[in-house]
Amino acid sequence: MCRYRALVLTVTSVNVNGLRAAAKKGFVEWLAGTDADVLCLQEVRAEPQQLPDEVRAPEGWHVVHAPAAAKGRAGVSLYTRREPDRVRVGFGSAEFDGSGRYVEADLPGVTVASLYLPSGEVGTDRQDEKVRFMGEFLAHLKDLRERAAADGREVLVCGDWNIAHQQADLKNWRANQKSSGFLPEERAWLTQVLDPADGGYVDVVRALHPDTEGPYTWWSYRGRAFDNDTGWRIDLHVSTPGLAGKAVKGYVERAATHAERWSDHAPVTVVYDL
To answer: Matching SUPFAM superfamilies, A to Z (predicted)?
Structure first.
């Protein structure tokens, strides 16, 4: 029986750090065992025809891939157990709609999106690109929220937001105050997104775990960051308040050991009791 009829929606989001590589390191086995109804992938870095069949169009899933025009970069995908009523690639941006950074799908009562926000790099054009993206994307988020409310729908934007919002979202926050991903202006922008009087969205996992360090979702491959849990919480479920209030469980599917990782990110899963 379709899980939607049971009024439970389980959504997982993960940056796969190259889907072809992840497929060889354990993603296929993970996909076969997941209970998720919706799966949001980021940094796929492949055209659909480059993916093995069991990843490109696995049995039991409806899949939309949104690769970047620049080959081998970015790319987002959405996997849903139920066929979406509507799919949209991009958010109406002349600059970014071909960059493989956003795809959304309408399911019963909720619009779910996969986001890969630019990572940025201080003092480079990449940071300027990130700032431009954030400006356009906040406007989209507000418009999406308003349109959804008018239709009686909720919104859920999952993905790699590439911003650690608060000190609790980053182990080494003191050393990273001038690093992209923890810049004051980036954190202020995410505060706007999450301000009830502005963006109007909720950081679902943080709402479920308000007094927790982390739970971290990304660890550098350098050094012993994973073993020491020296990570960043940058992979988020960001939703409208109505849906956030129905979240009953949220957790990071952290690999048992460094060797068992198939990405430098871990899947972030939330169960919504609709």
So the answer is: DNase I-like (SSF56219)
Q: Which of 120, 223, 124 is nearest to 176 (CA)?
A: 120
Give the catalytic positions in this structure. 116, 160, 265
Strand pairing category for 62-66 and 76-80? antiparallel
The pTM (predicted TM-score) of the whole model is 0.96
Residues 259-270: tens digit of each pLDDT: 999 999 999 999
State the total domains in the chain: 1
> Does residue 215 have a cis bond before it (omega within 30 degrees)?
yes
Alpha carbons 168 and 57: distance in angstroms, whole number = 38
* pLDDT (average), residues 161-184: 98
Q: Is 43 annotated as a binding residue?
A: yes
For residue 146, say whether it is annotated as part of any ligand binding site: no
pLDDT for residue 193: 98
Range of the domain at 212: 3-273
| CATH number of the domain to which 24 belongs | 3.60.10.10
